[in-house]
Write a structure and sequence with these properties.
The structure holds two protein chains of two kinds.
Chain A: H1 2-27, H2 42-65, H3 76-97, H4 105-109, H5 116-140, H6 147-170, H7 182-206, H8 214-246, H9 249-259, H10 264-283, H11 286-289, H12 292-318, H13 326-329, H14 343-366
Helix pairs in contact in A: 1-14, 2-3, 2-6, 2-7, 2-12, 3-5, 3-7, 3-14, 5-6, 6-7, 7-8, 7-12, 8-10, 8-12, 9-12, 10-12
Chain B: H1 5-13, H2 16-26, H3 45-57, E1 66-71, H4 80-88, E2 100-107, E3 110-117, E4 137-139, E5 145-147, H5 157-161, E6 167-169, H6 188-197, E7 220-222, H7 227-231, H8 237-241, E8 247-251, H9 258-263, E9 268-269, E10 281-284
The chains are: A mainly alpha, B alpha+beta.
The structure holds iron/sulfur cluster (2 copies).
Amino acid sequence: MIKKLAYLFGGLTLLFGLWGFYDRFAHGHQNANYGSYVVWGLWVAMYLFFAGIAAGGFMISTLDLLFGIKIFKGTGRVALWGSLVCLAAALISIGLDNGHLFRIWKVYLQGNPFSLLFQMVWGYTIFGVISVSALALASLQPNSPWLKPLMAVGLVVSFFISGAVGALLGVNASRPFWHVGLLPVQFPVFSLASGAAMLLTALGFFGREDDENRPQQLWILSLSSVVLLIVKIYFMWADYSQSMYGNVPMNVEAVRLVLFGEYWWAFWILQVLVGSLIPLVFLVQRKYATHNHWAGWMGILLLVGYAVARGLIIFPALSVPELEALVHAFSGPHLTFHYFPSLMEWAVTSGTIGIAVLGFLIGSEKFNLFSPTPKEA
Amino acid sequence: MSEPKEASILTKVASEVFAGVIAPALENAPLIQAAEDDVLAKEDVLVRMERELKRALKKTPAERRWVMVIDLRRCVGCHACTIACVAENKLPPGIVYRPVLTEEIGKYPNVTYRFLPKPCMQCENAPCTPVCPVNATYTNEEGVIVVDYDQCIGCRACISACPYASRTFDFGLNYTDKTIDGLAMTLGSKQAGKYETAGAAFEYGERRERKHEQSPIGNVRKCHFCLHRIKEGILPACTTTCIGRATFFGDANDPDSLVSELIAKPNVMRLKEDLGTEPRVYYLV
Ligand code: SF4
Ligand code: SF4
């Protein structure tokens, strides 16, 4: 039943997405609401979100495939596949956000190695190759001596790519909201939290009913998610309180936008209530945490919260004018400091989500990801 | 005795007819001594700057250091420079290289306005260039930050990195989009639109058409000190258009240039000095 629902969800979101993809290719960026001031919008936020799950999914897969923790046996390939489909979704999101998508080859052949974006493009490429190879090895030759070294290298790369996303924002000295040393450091934690939530969802919804390890897996993932969520909230408190007490006007304004300004509803309702408090309440109770569907739904809520949190890192920092009088200096399309994604942007994001969901479902069936050992596949 | 300076200003900057009408009336009027730094009192600055520009062009590019000086006391907030720039570079909707920031200061009835024209600062230590993954934006030999439209992938990391909001993204819009077509040459997207789309501008000395998703559409764009004009010995469009003669341009490596004189004054400042970007745009306050 839940699988059918997931297919339906994936199909419908992709269908809506097809219109978005058409609009994006037919009219370029014209119908987007991000602009020259709020220069990165929903797609960049979704890129951070999906890239976070990709890196985090890999990290979680090492529990099985690198560290060989018994209780997680058989989850490694699920996490790896989840990581790969999210990597694809992340790259679609960021690719469509570029003005000249088809010039991406220039980053490889004519790139600037000192640019973080350059390093990330290479990082994702290496990460993708490692993930595909690791999944292939884990599926076809699970006892290969190459698997563990590959996973070890992949683990380092996954920390690098998740930290680099934070650094991409953090190095902007002109944006005090981002320019804190702690920001890049937080991203691997965010990634790990996203990876745990992804696996919680996957195992909760689609794990094998007869797998005796499953309740324990769900319980550990639930508790880990709760701990990571609390660490995340702690980071947020550190960021926001420091900004408020520091009293740097650009910083205070960005925090005000999140807490009481135009993004209040996303913060209080989606991130705090739906994405944090509700899962927290249920996941600390064993009976819900180990109840398959409850665990799955709580995983989804956690992911929604993480997605919103990504947006709330990006948009507020860009919604504060670099120079106050810029707001009225010159008017025109895409020259505003207020941002809410356009229908086309939502559609493209919906399509990306559809691709990730359908990709995960189809792949998990094709590769028999939920069977106990690859040999049974 | 010093020359009656106010009268000489009239004969230099006003039209002959205007000067002819007013000058006799001024003959016996008490003249106010012009301030020592009043460059208008000496010669129309444009003439001097053109001369200096030609002199600078005789040097190799690396020997020049273009700077812009904007005298905020002279700026009247007419936005002529903004529009001159839009016209010169055929900037589409949503793209601006030189907005004039207007701030209201004080409380009624003691209210005044402050105007701050803001081109790209052409930072010596530009935060926008190292973030570019493909070296599409860089400091050219003359110290001007340029964008190679054919190289730029439109990631907009440079916009995000610029502390002065000096970069805008070309979304591919045209002013004549969706306008009703008429018979006359000046109506509608088909006819009047040709002006916008064919040979978009002469930026960087290139002639480009605005076609679907082709550069500079999908690229980041910014002020380049009108390099294409400078190359021909013409001052940037904003400088020649400024009705208050508030914008000065020239080679700061030439000790005798007007801009060198001006940036040596104590009342000079630059925007967000604390960031260490070392802008090449100076303000006189
Ligand atoms: S003002 Fe902005 S765009 Fe211009 S050089 Fe400085 S950082 Fe770059
Ligand atoms: S938008 Fe273009 S110029 Fe700016 S950083 Fe990206 S590729 Fe470089």
